Amino acid sequence: MSDGHAESEQLSTSACWTLLRRSDVGRMALHGDDDEIEIFPLNFIVDGESIVFKTAAGTKLSLASEHRRAAFEVDAFDFYEGTAWSVVLRGVPEVIRHDDE
Description:
This protein is 16% helix and 38% strand. By secondary structure, the chain is α+β, with helices and mostly antiparallel strands. It has a four-stranded antiparallel sheet with strand order 2-1-5-6. A hairpin with a 2-residue loop joins strand 3 (45-47) and strand 4. The protein is globular, with a radius of gyration of 16 Å. It starts with 12 loop residues before the first helix and ends in a 10-residue tail after the last strand.
């Protein structure tokens, strides 16, 4: 009999990057100026072991430019298989100002 809790397992680093490469939408969380956490949906690509996204001027770029610690999360759920996964990255964003960077 099940107690209603699904089994979970920790994914390897390699498996996490594979899942990220198969995804194109995630969420970035940054500490805002008003001491609140701001969460932004992002279209992104994976370049090596980096998440890259393009954005216009605004709150997201302003907060990321200040090199504040950030979290980035991508997840998925398969209703038919009854499986789900979540990958969370933590680090400091870097602003790329030129295409050759």
